Q: What sequence folds into this?
């Protein structure tokens, strides 16, 4: 896994006339190219803390654009859910409203084949209202009453054939001035 940090992205010609703020202040990203397989118990979440980005906003008014692309394979056909985490807790601004027994999620999908894989994307603007470091990662859940096997960056079957693949997942945080 590699991390990249870029500071102060400003157009080559400088800011437009009269501009005093805005633009991308800094970007932090990580890419996971290897695979990971874990068991996820029923009614619990796998908090994938090993795949994260940490960014320290320069002002309290900055917004953080989070972009994630993750490829996951489950060992069962079923719905699955992912939640954006910030500083070890669910980012409540990035999940749907509560409604009965429904799982509040940031993104998700349906594993339609036991040897399949789904690539899921997320874009979300977070307003931390802080200059403290913000650490973002993802947590994974499923709806089965049994423990299920989760594979990241590969299918759950992972057979050695041209019908199977290996993938890369990325997580990006961009501080935006306002």
A:
């Amino acid at each position: 896994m590699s991390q990249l940090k870029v500071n102060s992205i400003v157009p080559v010609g400088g800011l437009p006339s009269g501009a005093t703020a805005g633009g991308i202040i800094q970007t932090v990203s990580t890419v996971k190219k290897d695979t990971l397989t874990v068991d996820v118990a029923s009614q619990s979440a796998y908090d994938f803390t090993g795949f994260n980005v940490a960014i320290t906003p320069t002002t309290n008014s900055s917004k953080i654009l989070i972009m994630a692309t993750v490829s996951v394979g489950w060992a069962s056909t079923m719905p699955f859910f992912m939640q954006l985490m910030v500083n070890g807790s669910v980012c409540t601004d990035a999940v749907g409203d509560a409604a009965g027994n429904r799982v509040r999620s940031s993104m998700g999908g349906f594993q339609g084949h036991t040897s399949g894989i789904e690539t899921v994307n997320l874009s979300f603007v977070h307003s931390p209202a802080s200059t403290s470091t913000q650490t973002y990662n993802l947590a994974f859940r499923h709806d089965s009453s049994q423990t299920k096997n989760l594979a990241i960056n590969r299918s759950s079957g992972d057979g050695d054939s041209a019908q199977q693949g290996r993938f890369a997942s990325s997580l990006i945080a961009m501080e935006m001035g306002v």
About this structure: The chain has no helices and twelve strands. The mean pLDDT is 87. The radius of gyration is 18 Å.
